[in-house]
């Protein structure tokens, strides 16, 4: 149908032109596209209107005010074919149950002739109804009756032996089952060939699986023989699959894969563990070459497992890894006509990964023992052989696709091959040179990130204090050299050097000084490291230097005087850093440290009236903050914190009038924040009021909770969760309704 002009209705020529030949309406561009879309919606609504009018004209009249429910538009949860299949399956199942009950229960109440006549008649009717029903188009019913007929045939075989027909009761059970299964399979194959149905052919393939299985039971084959037989049955199904077509081909494929899977599992479960997994690998390879290359993953798994068991047990960690690598390499030798890699190479390699994972797990245990030795036992573990092999294979495999993983793997291999502090020191230097000389993008970063853990292990593995000092000095020199020689690694190198400087300072001072005295040497190292990091513009170095400060403060925790002095030095350091561009916010940390120093000093001299000392400091901070046109947190926050926090700590025991007075003062600050609409007074004052009130009512709440039954809080939590869930569901419903309304409006 040729399109027409939206304005004048003139039929437009083909191919389309940019404008109408009659009214010259522009037909291209975004507005024209929107006009075409609106016209299409109008035509659709017009057709829908005509359909609604026709439905109303031919629909039966309904009482006024009662909405008419259009049953033809009601959603169908089950299709017609699905309902039919359910009914037929249910009917067939009921017939089968009735036949089974008749054969097992009512068999003895009838004579031989009546028994045979009933079963033969039912079987003939069920199997002979295929053609008449197919001619009438009742193919599904015919399929169901055919399945019932097969069940009747099997029941006749059982009944014949149970009734000792022709002396069959004397035949050994497994041999009789194998012979009967063979006869039923042959007869059913003939029936499937001539019956105009699709289901008997796949059932014939299924029946063909039973004679070999019953024969195995009759021969009392051992478990290894059963595994081999299942694998051979899988290959037989593969051969039969190549000769069939249609549904029976799919049945042969499914049953062959199932028998192959069972044979593979049996091969891993029984002895010998070398030959049987190899047979399973060959079977999976045959299926992969003929059906799907992904099945070759089973080949890789079974082949690698078989080869791993064949290797010496002394290489407990390396044998699975070596086996996985060899099997993956052997897959490259498979022929391929296109001149490219065989399609099964990748699945085979993927299948070997679980075997390699076993080696990796065993190696990881050895690695953990070696790495944890200096920290647990004070000395590294013993010499290992298999673990470095596994780690080297991992490093070689990661070199091309995942090169950043190579430096840590190489480091682990070296430490497990020769676990000593000299190896760690040499490795740290080698990794530093690697990071300096490698010109790639991510590998130098990975090598540089591996240096700190190696350095920590080397320090822990050092046998005495002199060696520890030597290790730390070497690390300091390494960080300084890399920071000076490699600009792109200057940030992490400076951080490593600062950390080594702190460790070296502690190692040199602790043997001669008390911990609270050595803390000031560590603070000096932090100050020097901060200065160097600021000069080198190393943000990471600044962070590491500041991490030394809490360590120094912790070393003086039991001495209030040195602790106050340490806080004061920390505050001065923070104020000094705040003078640098971009570091102004560090000044607030310096102010907080100076405040902590002040309050620590007051505690050392036994001051209890903290408000008398807090008020002047708070006034000074408030005056300094008001001079800056910034947020309320910078103008009022420090002053309020200095005024409220010490009083809150002093009032926390809850004795005397101090909690009430503090609550009134905090409430006044909160109201001021509300009046002036400032965040800092509002939040700080409100938080103080809540803390004081919570501390006051905490004993009452505790006493109340001790009297409440244990299920009550759980019930309350459950009710709360239920209300939240109901609210969430209601919101989802509203959102869904809104989407529906929006879609209808569009």
Tell me what you see in this structure.
- By secondary structure, the protein is mainly α.
- Helices cover 75% and strands 0% of the residues.
- The chain is built from 31 helices and no strands.
- Among the domains are: 1-57, no CATH class; 110-347, no CATH class; 618-710, no CATH class.
- The longest helix is centred in the last third of the chain and has 35 residues, at 711-745.
- The model is unreliable at 60-78 and 721-729 (pLDDT under 50).
Features:
single chain; 746 residues; 31 helices
> What radius of gyration results from the CA coordinates?
43 Å
Helix proportion range: over 70%
What structural category do the secondary elements indicate?
A: mainly alpha
Low-confidence stretches: 60-78, 721-729
Secondary structure tally: strands? 0
Amount of beta strand? under 5%
Total helical segments: 31
> What is the average per-residue confidence, as pLDDT, rounded to a whole number?
76
Q: Which of globular, elongated, flat, extended, rod-shaped describes the shape?
A: extended
User: How far apart, in Å, are the first and last alpha carbons?
Assistant: 26 Å
The biggest sheet amounts to:
none
SSE arrangement:
Elements: H1 30-58, H2 80-104, H3 112-128, H4 130-135, H5 139-162, H6 173-194, H7 200-207, H8 210-219, H9 223-243, H10 247-269, H11 275-290, H12 296-310, H13 318-331, H14 345-351, H15 353-376, H16 386-398, H17 406-417, H18 421-437, H19 443-461, H20 465-485, H21 490-509, H22 515-536, H23 539-554, H24 560-578, H25 586-604, H26 610-626, H27 632-635, H28 637-651, H29 658-676, H30 679-707, H31 711-745
């Amino acid at each position: 149908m040729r399109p027409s002009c939206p304005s004048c209705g003139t039929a437009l020529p083909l191919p389309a032109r940019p404008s109408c030949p009659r009214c010259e309406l522009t037909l291209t561009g975004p507005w024209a596209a929107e006009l075409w879309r609106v016209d299409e919606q109008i035509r659709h609504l017009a057709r829908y209107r005509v359909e609604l009018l026709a439905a109303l004209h031919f629909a039966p009249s309904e009482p006024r005010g009662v909405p008419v429910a259009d049953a033809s538009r009601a959603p169908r949860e089950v299709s017609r074919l699905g309902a039919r299949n359910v009914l037929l399956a249910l009917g067939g199942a009921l017939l089968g149950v009735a036949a089974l009950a008749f054969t097992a229960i009512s068999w003895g109440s009838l004579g031989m002739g009546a028994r045979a006549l009933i079963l033969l008649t039912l079987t003939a009717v069920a199997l002979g109804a295929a053609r008449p029903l197919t001619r009438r188009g009742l193919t599904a019913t015919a399929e169901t009756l055919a399945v019932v007929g097969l069940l009747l045939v099997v029941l006749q075989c059982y009944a014949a032996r149970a009734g000792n027909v022709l002396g069959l009761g004397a035949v050994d059970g497994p041999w009789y089952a194998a012979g009967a299964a063979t006869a039923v399979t042959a007869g059913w194959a003939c029936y499937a060939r001539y019956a105009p149905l699709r289901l008997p052919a796949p059932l014939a393939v299924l029946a063909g699986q039973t004679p070999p299985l019953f024969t195995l039971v009759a021969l009392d084959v051992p478990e290894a023989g059963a595994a081999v037989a299942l694998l051979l049955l899988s290959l037989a199904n593969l051969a039969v699959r190549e000769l069939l077509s249609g549904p029976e081909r799919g049945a042969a494929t499914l049953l062959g894969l199932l028998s192959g899977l069972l044979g593979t599992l049996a091969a891993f479960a029984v002895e010998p563990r070398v030959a049987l997994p190899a047979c399973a690998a060959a079977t999976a390879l045959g299926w992969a070459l003929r059906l799907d290359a992904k099945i070759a993953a089973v080949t890789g798994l079974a082949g690698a497992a078989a080869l791993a068991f064949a290797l010496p047990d002394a290489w407990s960690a390396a044998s699975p890894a070596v086996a996985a690598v060899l099997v993956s390499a052997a897959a490259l030798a498979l022929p391929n006509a296109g001149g490219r890699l065989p399609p099964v190479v990748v699945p085979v390699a993927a299948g070997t990964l679980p075997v390699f994972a076993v080696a990796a797990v065993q190696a990881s245990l050895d690695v953990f023992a070696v790495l944890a030795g200096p920290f647990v036992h004070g000395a590294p573990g013993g010499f290992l052989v298999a673990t470095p092999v596994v780690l080297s294979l991992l490093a070689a495999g990661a070199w091309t696709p995942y090169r950043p993983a190579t430096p840590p793997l190489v480091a682990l291999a070296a430490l497990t091959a020769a676990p000593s502090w000299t190896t760690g020191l040499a490795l740290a230097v080698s990794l530093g040179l690697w990071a300096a000389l490698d010109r790639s993008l991510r590998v130098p970063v990975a090598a540089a990130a591996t240096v700190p853990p190696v350095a920590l292990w080397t320090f822990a593995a050092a046998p005495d204090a002199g060696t520890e000092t030597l290790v730390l000095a070497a690390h300091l020199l390494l960080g300084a050299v890399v920071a000076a020689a490699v600009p792109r690694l200057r940030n992490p190198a400076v951080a490593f050097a600062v950390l080594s400087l702190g460790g070296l300072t502690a190692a040199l001072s602790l043997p001669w000084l008390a911990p609270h005295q050595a803390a000031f040497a560590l603070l000096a190292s932090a100050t020097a490291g901060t200065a160097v990091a600021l000069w080198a513009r190393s943000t990471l170095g600044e962070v590491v230097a500041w991490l030394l400060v809490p360590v120094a403060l912790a070393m003086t925790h039991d001495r209030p005087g040195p602790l106050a002095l340490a806080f004061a030095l920390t505050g001065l350091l923070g104020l000094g850093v705040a003078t640098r561009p971009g570091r102004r916010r560090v000044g607030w940390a310096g102010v907080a440290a100076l405040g902590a120093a002040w309050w620590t000093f007051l505690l050392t001299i036994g001051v209890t009236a903290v408000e008398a000392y807090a008020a002047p400091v708070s006034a000074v901070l408030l005056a300094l903050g008001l001079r800056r046109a910034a947020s309320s947190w910078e103008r009022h926050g420090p002053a309020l914190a200095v005024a409220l926090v010490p009083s809150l700590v002093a009032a926390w025991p809850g004795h005397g009038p101090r909690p009430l007075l503090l609550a009134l003062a905090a409430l006044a600050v909160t109201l001021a924040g509300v009046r002036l609409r400032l965040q800092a007074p509002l939040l700080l004052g409100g938080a103080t009021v809540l803390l004081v009130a919570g501390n006051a009512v905490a004993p009452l709440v505790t006493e109340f909770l001790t009297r409440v039954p244990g299920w009550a809080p759980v019930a309350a939590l459950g009710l709360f969760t239920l209300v939240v869930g109901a609210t969430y569901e209601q919101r989802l419903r509203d959102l869904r309704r809104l989407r529906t309304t929006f879609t209808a409006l569009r």
